[in-house]
Description:
With 519 residues, the protein is mostly beta strands. The chain contains one helix and 34 strands. Strands 1, 4, 5, 7, 12, 13, 14 and 16 form an eight-stranded antiparallel β-sheet that branches. Strands 2-3-6-15-8-9-10-11 form an eight-stranded antiparallel β-sheet, with no helix packed on it.
Amino acid sequence: MAIQLRTSGVFNLGSLGGDGSDTDFDSVVLLLDGSGGGNSTVPDSSSINNTVTNVSSGVSNANITGPYGATQDVLSFDGSNDSLEFTVSSDMELAGDFTIEAWVQRSSVSTRQCLIAYWGVSGDPRFRIEFDRVPDNISFFAETTTHDFSSSGTNTEVANTWFHLAATRSGSTYEIFIDGSSLGTLTGSTATFTGSSTYSNKGHIGSLTNSTTFFGGKIADFRITKGVARYTNNFTPPASALPTTAARATRPTRKWGGLVGRSLVETTESTEDPYWDDTVLYLRANNNSTDETGRHTPTMGTGGYSTNVPFSASSNTHSFNFNNTTAHRITLPNSTDFQFGSGEFTIEAFVRWDGTGQLGALFNTYEGTGTGDGMLFGVAGLAGGNMRLYCSSNGSSWDMANGADGGMQLTANTWHHIALVRESNGSIYSYKDGTKTTTALSTSTASIYTNGTDDAHIGGNTTNYEWMGQIDEFRITKGVARYTGDFIAPTASFPTSASTTNVPTTGVLSLAEHYQSKL
């Protein structure tokens, strides 16, 4: 079934707004600000940190007056063979609502040019957004195994003039906006758009398949938001560069911990977790390997569970048990959730080391034993229990951290709360029982290497680095440094929902008191 919609709209830049914050940044899966032209890759400022390849480095840089009226770098496409491409990973598959938008300046308005495409053969769940051969027509084409969808809107385009284009899907309603004015809606497919093996599961910006329908002109602030239809009514386009961090105005101004001394001092305090939406993995180990976030399905090893736990509560009756064998490891299937790039993160758990073994991995992001292949954080048994970090940016050497421990040492057969935290300046610190190491384990601002295919593991990997003892309450928070200074370690299970209520408090509230209140 083919559906065609034509409407008329007026190209009106009008008065652009924007409050400088983005409450939906956690849903942004691609954000190209316009920099990086002429390089082999262009930077993605989303939390996904996609590798966006500049095919043959054809997309160049242009330092011109941008859409916001000031001189800036933008991506320049020549219209003959320029294209950007990225892998359509599970993070990039478009299920449910979504928004695709960009500031665009076309060199010519009378040629067929593709802005973005997840393309494939007939029958694949594919889509494209393109400018038709007929001037002033914009087409949003989508096809699934059951039907086709095509939408065209009429607008008054002017060559070499910036305009804001947005395409949204809300439920089954598709809509195109030019400078914030809707060009019409229609009902279409609710299918999940994925990559096609025919085109190596790639998405393309500036061409249909990197071989045809090339875009000619300039692009800035290209953004894809997954799970959110940002615009369902006419709106004022942004008047400044898109934000690259989430807006947290309704969350506490302090993070859990990271304050002067060892107490959390606030005038208002959340009853739950202000960073639950940033939590990408949480294993309570309560006699199962369930991820409380619902994002992952870990594969449990043969080590089973222990009733030796760091604190007694109905939510914490068991811990994960490890005994110097790779068969006991917990496998976390490959996911961009565990590809941290250059951003903030917090990896934490309660651990009990039995005092033996050589190098036991609390967490690592690669399969084998290759030097520089990702990141490993674990206890060095032969060094007396120091918690060491090995970290690489290049995949061939531990250039970021080579066994750095910051002086932290575990006591055998004793439960400790351990945290590994990367702060906004790139420095990585570790914490034991709420006390921060005085020396950073790494001060590099580089992106942490990933080969994009290896699974992550807890307690060892497929060949080595077996943990000896127990691990409990394992949590990873991506994009947030929960701790930036000494804090009181929790004495109960972590919350499993986002903040919904602010409860006035006075004086001092420790994390221990906060979590005990949840029992």
